[in-house]
Specification:
Helix content is about 35%, strand content about 25%. With about 750 residues, it is an alpha+beta fold. The chain has 3 domains: about 90-220 and about 245-290, Metalloenzyme, LuxS/M16 peptidase-like (Cytochrome Bc1 Complex, Chain A, domain 1, 2-Layer Sandwich); about 310-445 and about 465-515, 2-Layer Sandwich (Cytochrome Bc1 Complex, Chain A, domain 1), CATH 3.30.830.10; about 535-755, Lipoprotein localisation LolA/LolB/LppX (outer membrane lipoprotein receptor (LolB), chain A, Clam), CATH 2.50.20.
């Protein structure tokens, strides 16, 4: 599936990320090869063993050898009954402050891990501050505590060879420490400090916000992720505790005080379940934990109850569509509100899910993928929640030309199952598949402890997994048919399709009324300006007229196009890199930028209608969002703004004065009300030259407040041009540009701006 095209700047950023990922994958492949080779070598029998085996076979004339031949079919393979799994039984302790602790010894390695499960999550955060829980969970660790700054904590953990991590998800929060046995005192002290006394410094909060903004900017790049996210929002409601999502404005609205309040509300010992496993003696570890948390008093606030699911979630039947024109495949997802793991029918529904689309031998795979060739990936899942209903989903990806066909094919398989039930072979195969997976539920001590913590958190019995196994074993064909008829009613399904509708085999409307889902990412709100008055308008135009005269007057007015050649340095999360940039701008609304990099040229252009990018791999049109960014940059062009001071399409007003680097400057706002665009200009009244611009933009894909700072003015053909530019976004340096050459009215041909 073709990914969304990226701008030149984003391509450079992606290149640096890819180089790092390639190096990591090469190292991982090498380690896996070494491990596999060691395993194979370790399994080879010695020559003496081979000889003994051969001698034994030869010493028994007429011995039967049929057991060495493979079965004629996998269906004839017979397996003995599964052994019951004997697992360690962790000790459960409740401390005086209400914290529950699970302890289990594991002396295999000299390591100890302690993990806290906290009753906190995004489902309890205010919808208008979506992202608060995640940011709180991040900064608890990165920001450290009053006695241990985050960066110092990193250094201390590096010296110990340990790690401490915190996070808060949808339904719960977590905090974990893992250390060598000899350092458990230090590790446990750090964990207790982080849980109780996070410092929440402003700089770390801002870094966490930047990460959230970047995630928002990228959220519409992967089609399968889009349909999964939006299907949940359709069922639960987009503003519900289970469907809301962070936006730029909700992230920007979060303050340090919000993090402090969220932590205070949810982080109390009664809301914490602690699990410890590793190389220790139980009594000694219990004493260490009691000592570490002795000063954490009960909060005496009621435990938060899980928010109720909107009753309307049961009635979301309908056909929904997400238009995405840059893909050549469709993603289809259908289903409805499911149930909980505590429901009586959960076991039979788990079996149904496996038969229908839970593996390579499932009905959907055999029919939709193998027989009809409609999809490579097709699946189903009854994803029951612990303390709230989950979802039943079925779906897959297909080429655009078979979109309606795959919808019909998936529905038909579900209806057949509900009409005729399943065979003995299907039932036994599904149950065996589920039960055989139980070995992986006990393959580490950590899994065993964390599972019991999970059961405690959601109010399930300690032996829930054993009960689950027993109930799966009891599922009959009659059970499967009954629950299929009761729950899998396709006329109650919500069906979501993402794709390019013009390429579909049939219009979606042929299946019924279609509701369009808009996945456009809302832009952050701009700061509201005071209402313009005749006085502020006159003052603003006078200031800009002075700038026009100072920068060249008639010479500037005569500019039609110009070219700059510069050396630019970009700051990215992967580090700093420099490129040579050649930019050509036609003030009538066209532009082309050529970035010369060590791996080839990246050219981004705009011909007045279409934005495009050309890389060594070829040329392609940019999506509407990036075309809009290019148009906005042309609106903000200094020469263009000064040539249009008297344009009726623009509103200009003075905003008063402010201080930059100890000097008073005048502020002027230029607004294009029809396109909802604005830029603030900062002018030095002594020179009447522009010293800064401020505006909202997404130069690297993530919207935010951008400032451009200008210096080193030089005269070129009677026009003063700043030869130095520094670009900051959200207070962080993003780009530094040093111009080497400027050409005024070089006589550029139109074809330069056209897509190759």
């Amino acid at each position: 599936m073709r990914p969304e095209p990226l701008s030149g700047f984003q391509l450079l950023q992606r290149l640096s990320r890819r180089l790092i990922m390639i190096a990591k994958r090469m190292l991982l492949s090498l380690l896996l090869f070494i491990a596999l080779a060691s395993s194979i070598v370790g399994q080879q029998p010695s020559k003496s063993e081979q000889t003994k085996s051969g001698d034994k076979a030869q010493s028994q004339p007429g011995a039967k050898t049929s057991s060495l031949r493979p079965a004629a079919s996998y269906k004839r393979l017979k397996y003995p009954p599964l052994n019951r799994v004997n697992v360690p039984d962790p000790m459960r302790v409740e401390l005086q402050n209400g914290m529950v602790v699970y302890l289990v010894e594991d002396h295999e390695l000299p390591m100890i891990t302690i993990s806290a499960l906290v009753r906190a999550g995004s489902r309890w955060e205010p919808v208008n501050k979506a992202g608060l829980a995640a940011i709180t969970g991040t900064v608890m660790r990165t920001g450290g505590t009053p006695s241990r700054a985050g960066d110092k904590l990193d250094e201390e953990l590096d010296r110990l060879g340990a790690f401490v991590e915190t996070s808060i998800g949808d339904d719960s929060g977590q905090a974990t420490v893992s250390v060598l046995k000899e350092d458990i005192d230090k590790g446990l002290t750090i964990l207790a400090d982080v849980l109780q006394n996070p410092a929440f410094p402003e700089d770390k909060i801002e870094l966490a916000k930047i990460e959230q903004r970047e995630a928002i900017a990228r959220r519409n790049m992967d089609p399968s992720s889009i349909v999964s996210r939006e299907f949940g929002r359709i069922i639960f409601g987009k503003d519900s505790p289970y469907g809301h999502q962070p936006e730029y404005d909700t992230i920007n609205a979060i303050s340090r005080e919000d993090l402090i309040a969220f932590h205070k509300q949810f982080f109390q010992p009664e809301n914490v379940i602690l699990g410890a496993w590793g190389d220790f003696k139980t009594d000694e570890m219990r004493a260490l934990i009691e000592k570490a948390f002795a000063g954490w008093a009960r909060g005496n606030r009621p435990k938060p109850a899980p928010p109720e699911v909107d009753p309307a979630a049961k009635n979301r039947a309908g056909l929904y569509f997400i238009s995405k024109d840059d893909v050549n495949q469709s993603q289809v997802l259908m289903g409805l509100l499911g149930g909980k793991r505590s429901d009586e029918d959960y076991y039979a529904l788990s079996v149904i899910s496996r038969i229908l689309g839970g593996g390579f031998n499932s009905r959907l795979v055999n029919s939709v993928r193998t027989e009809q060739g409609l999809a490579y990936d097709v699946f189903s899942s009854w994803s029951a929640g612990w303390d709230r209903p989950g979802l039943f989903i079925a779906g897959g990806g297909t080429k655009s030309e078979t979109t309606v066909k795959i919808i019909d094919a998936i529905k038909r398989e579900i209806e057949k199952l509900a009409e005729a039930g399943v065979t003995d072979e299907e039932l036994n195969g599904a149950k065996d598949g589920i039960l055989n997976g139980f070995a992986f539920e006990f393959d580490s001590t950590g899994k065993i402890v964390q599972r019991l913590m999970n059961y405690e958190y959601y109010g399930y019995p300690r032996d829930y997994l054993q009960r689950y196994r027993e109930n799966v074993e009891k599922v009959t064909k009659a059970d499967v048919l009954r629950v299929a008829k009761q729950y899998l009613k396709t006329d109650q399904f919500a069906i979501l399709v993402l794709g390019r509708e013009k390429d579909f085999d049939k219009p979606l409307s042929s299946l019924g009324q279609v509701t369009t889902i808009d996945i456009t990412i809302p832009k952050p709100r701009q700061e509201a300006l005071a209402a313009a008055t005749p006085e502020t308008v006159d003052r603003g135009k006078k200031i800009l007229t002075n700038v026009l005269e100072a920068m060249g007057g008639a010479a500037l007015q005569s500019i039609k196009d110009y070219m700059t050649i510069s050396n630019d340095t970009f700051n990215t999360p992967q580090g700093e890199f420099s490129v040579k940039v050649e930019s050509t701008v036609r003030l009538a609304g066209k532009a082309v930028n050529k970035l010369i990099t060590p791996v080839g040229e990246i050219v981004q252009g705009f011909d007045g209608q279409m934005a495009w990018v050309r890389t060594p791999q070829g040329s392609q049109e940019l999506p509407a969002s990036q075309r809009e960014e290019v148009e906005n940059s042309l609106f903000r062009d200094t020469f263009s703004l000064l040539q249009n001071i008297d344009s009726s399409a623009l509103t200009i007003q003075a905003l008063g004065s402010t201080e930059i680097d100890g000097k008073q400057v005048e502020m002027v706002a230029v607004v294009d009300p029809t396109r909802n665009r604005q830029v603030k200009l900062y002018v030095d009244p002594r020179t009447n030259l522009l010293v800064k611009k401020v505006y909202m933009a997404a130069p690297m894909g993530t919207p935010g407040e951008v400032e451009e700072i200008y210096s080193d003015y030089r005269e070129v053909n009677g026009v003063k041009v700043p030869f130095k530019l520094v670009m900051n976004q959200n207070g962080k340096k993003l780009r530094e540009q040093t111009i080497a050459e400027v050409k005024i009215n070089p006589g550029v041909e139109d074809r330069v701006f056209n897509k190759p």
